[in-house]
Amino acid sequence: MSVITRSAASRAYTYLLSLFNSRKFLNPLSPIAFQTFGSVQPESSSRAYVLIYGAGNRAGSTYAHYLAEKGFNLILIDRDMTPLTDIEIALKDKFGKRASSPHNPVPHIPQIYKVVINKFDTDTLTYQLAHVRDLPVKLFFNCKNSKRKADTKGAHKRYPEDDIPKKGIQDEGGDFDLAQAAEEVCNREEIQFTGKENIEGFACLVNVFIRQLSVTFDNVALINVDNHEDDMGDGDQIKQGQLYYQSTVQFQDTFTTLVGKQLRQNRGSKISTINVKVNFKKLKNNHSYRRQQELCEKTFQYLGLKETLYIN
């Protein structure tokens, strides 16, 4: 009974904290920047940026719109320019209409940087991020959940005789078994695409921007958002073709949590983290606006209070 009581009390305490938790993260202005630059500098110079890796999917777009409304500037990163441009056009149209209305105060129109990255080697990162890497980032979102299912058909087409990997699937004799490739849990194409997007991209971008977090802002955060599909299965019921993808999701979860712990231990700096699980498809249905608002509001309510948050 005492265990149940303590557990209930802990949940109640967390809930009470969540009621006042959002405000500190959703303030886009830096008091440190004001003290440094003085009042002669424009307000935009002290406004925080939100970096969203995977901004092109539904979750990334949802956070971009929500945080632009809160007064943040945006750094949008993905592998294709089209969805990033769509977000920019939608936001400019929205804020432009408000600015032209005599009944509304002139809003802060967010500054938006769009960055397309397909490779994550040092030279590419240095070149592509040169114009944004020194911007004051307060919130870092990872919404990248790329998925390329293992194809169990046409193994011979994917592994032609002149392109058989020297190291790969092997039988007991050490020879590559071409026919066996179709039965494996993941293939080379899946590893190259999903691993590059979900693991390499996320880790490299955090490594680039981690120093910017907390330079001029308090209450900085690293937020990882996973596509939690109802029919994916879990534990021993992993859906076929999803094993490697789910492994990359687990990496993202663990990496996010450990980054926060390491910074607190080694540098004494405070960075709040959370892993958010939400079904991306449900953000697109007829009730999407309500779900999108719930996703954003609960993220900041429980940021730093829970390690993992599930949004139904």
TrEMBL record:
It comes from the Eukaryota. This is Uncharacterized protein.
